[in-house]
Amino acid sequence: MITAETACNDATMPVRAPRSTQSVKTFLYLLTAIPLGAVGAAVLLAGWIAVPLLAITPLVVPALVAFRAAVGGVARLEGATANGLLATRTTPPVQSPGPKGYWRRIPAILGDGAFWKQQVFLLQRFVVGGALAVAEATLLAGSLGYITQPIWYRWAHSGYGAWKVDTLGRAFLLFPAGVLGLVLALILLRPLTAYSRSLAVGLLGGEGPAYPDPASPVAQARRLRALEWHALGVLLLNLFMIVIWATTTPGGYFWPTWTLAPLGVALGIHAWTVYVAARPAGVPRGLALHAGASLGLSLFLVVIWAVTSRGYFWPLWPIAVFALALLVHLAIDRRFRQQSVRIEQLESTRAGAVDQQDAELRRIERNLHDGAQAQLVALGMSIGMAEQKLASDPEGAQRLLADARRGAREALEELRSLARGIHPPVLADRGLEAAIAALADRTPLTVHVDVDVDQRPPAPVETAAYYVVAEALANVGKHAGAEHVDIAVRRESDELVVEITDDGAGGAKASGNGLLGLARRVEALDGTFRVESPVGGPTVVRAVMPCAS
Amino acid sequence: MRVVIAEDLALLRDGLSRLLRDNGFEVVEAVQDGDALIHAVLRERPDIAIVDIRLPPTFRDEGVRAALMLRERAPDTAVLIVSQYVEQAYAAELLAGGGSGVGYLLKDRIMDVDDFVDAVRRVASGGTALDPEVVSQLFARQRDDGPLGRLTPREREVLSLMAEGRSNAAIASELVLTIGAVEKHVANILMKLNLPPSDTDHRRVLAVLEYLRHG
């Protein structure tokens, strides 16, 4: 079973590097942050100085274009590095899309999201990436140093305060710390891989290698097991340290703090990641992880401060940096979430538009079936019966034929009104004002029409506006018991505003069938539709649709 | 003959009642939906119920469902479905019971008053009336190189009319032939399609339809 499952997974998932190879590659990737980050930072610095300096001269355009190209070039280099070492697939754009023309390049470049994301990437590569590279390299080198301490302690004369490493025994004491550090450094490379990948993919575009679904029960169980082992290891190690402390220097300086604090913080962060991963979708995971990690590290620094000098509260500075980074992350996250909310909205309104269309077609079919089609059948019947009676009862036949003629006229009227319901000819020929005036003429209500639209809006907007008025008028006639209706259609900057106010009894619900259909129609055009109808009136139906021309 | 009508559009309900009364039928009740139809039929036990397919409340295939229920609960009452469209599947459902006195016609046919009245009488007395539209849908499913391909054009015409449920006499007058000639065509058709000769028109229709549906 298990082998079959594994084989299946292997077959369906893109090949990923084995964990150890990937760790080496990630380490190399972290190291590249130092040279590449420096290049990127230099480009950013040059651009940020040159472009504002030239802002009042025409030279700002070539400067901005050059800056954009330079950022794009470094981003491309970064992308290639990430592709090679992190198995991502990203090709960051070097140029900003947009219209040609000297001055038009400025809004095109400044409005290009990819450009800004690339800058953020370069900046974080220099600041965060560089720091991570130094930290990881130091941890790795230090651990290796501790492990090999027994070999070279004679020449190094290392030590901490009065405690000198001057015997082989003491050198061996550092050995477990070295192993611990090494394991930590290697373990850290895994989340660092994921972190670097998500940054590269998120800011440079493209995609990363496929992961097994992190929400699957299998993946969750695996994460939980790893956490348990981690906790057990930390517990045993610290117990071991405390036992050593208790047997060698009981009551003295409590040095096991130095393993307890970092390992405890690391365990806490690990537990937090597992907890966040198990949360249902909808929680912004990256943000939660970031916040948890920042909090853990801050706590760690405070503990370090507390057990050491307790003088000047130096952790303030790194904590401030963490908070700032978190705020930036929060801002970016909100921006992107707004985008995704917008996409969801688009999808739902599109589905609504399709439903709306379907309902419309069904309505037309029903109208045909019950209207013109039935009238034609009745007409045929009358003619058929007249035919039968022609010889025996000429007067009866004449009556039937008169019925038939009336039926034919009614069928024609029916067809005409149906055609008007599908697309009113006057709207197409004369535009909104004439069409609304025609609507107003056909109702028994007193209607005051005020259409102030200098330029015809796009056809879909016009049609939707027409239907809003038509349906609202029909509703007023049916339910409101109103006498006066005010219809106002006007253009406010890039939006068409349609407002129908009646002096009826109010209490209309926007969820009613006709009004719901209108809401969908308007939302499909990215507009908003509102019905305000307090009991006692007045009722205001208001649709606002963008009509940028 | 006693008739119950189920039709939701007043215009057609009244027109149909008038037409049938003029032609000597007794319209005992004219109702608007499927439930009322079933009650009326169980109460009045008419000779025939004329039912529109689309009835309130859902305006889908209420009429067919009501008709199927009537077939079970009032087998003596014939059912003629009238509709503004024909659907072969509905015809198949109606005929599946194999009972007598079933019809399915387009509303257009009502305009040919004599033919329509004839069809109502035929169905009411246990015969069959299938709309030519249904029959041509059935023919459309046949392959040209099958046994049907061996029929002469005239024989195909006769077969269509047989499938609609017409009697030999009706076929003869429709095609302007003598009854003897029609009988000869019918015998040829049944032989070519390998169908047994039947004693009644209704059985003959069922055999032909069965053949057209399942080859």
Topology:
The complex is a heterodimer of chains A (549) and B (215).
Chain A lengths: L1 H11 L6 H35 L6 H27 L18 H6 L2 H35 L1 H8 L2 E2 L2 E2 L3 H37 L12 H32 L8 H22 L6 H23 L8 H74 L4 H29 L2 H6 L1 H10 L4 E7 L6 H22 L3 E9 L2 E8 L10 H12 L3 E5 L6 E8 L3
Parallel strand pairs in A: 3-4
Antiparallel strand pairs in A: 1-2, 4-5, 5-7, 6-7
Chain B lengths: L1 E5 L3 H13 L3 E6 L2 H11 L3 E5 L9 H12 L4 E6 L4 H9 L5 E5 L6 H12 L3 E3 L1 H9 L12 H12 L3 H8 L3 H14 L8 H14 L1
Parallel strand pairs in B: 1-2, 1-3, 3-4, 4-5, 5-6
Helix pairs in contact in B: 2-3, 6-7, 7-9, 7-10, 8-9
Question: Can you walk through the features of this model?
Answer:
The complex is a heterodimer of chains A (549) and B (215). Helix content of chain A is 71%, strand content 7%. Chain A has 16 helices and 7 strands. Chain A has helices spanning 2-12, 19-53, 60-86, 105-110, 113-147, 149-156, 168-204, 217-248, 257-278, 285-307, 316-389, 394-422, 425-430, 432-441, 459-480, 513-524, and strands at 159-160, 163-164, 446-452, 484-492, 495-502, 528-532, 539-546. In chain A, strands 3-4-5-7-6 form a 5-stranded mixed sheet, covered by helices on one side. A two-stranded antiparallel sheet of chain A has the order 1-2. In chain A, helix 10 (285-307) runs antiparallel to helix 11 (316-389). Chain A is elongated. The two termini of chain A are 63 Å apart. With 215 residues, chain B is an alpha/beta fold. Chain B has helices spanning 10-22, 34-44, 62-73, 88-96, 113-124, 132-140, 153-164, 168-175, 179-192, 201-214; strands at 2-6, 26-31, 48-52, 78-83, 102-106, 128-130. A 6-stranded parallel sheet of chain B has the order 2-1-3-4-5-6, with helices on both faces. In chain B, strand 1, helix 1 and strand 2 (26-31) form a beta-alpha-beta unit. Chain B starts with a strand and ends with a helix. The model of chain B has no long low-confidence stretch (mean pLDDT 86). At the A-B interface, helix 11 of A face helix 1 and helix 5 of B.
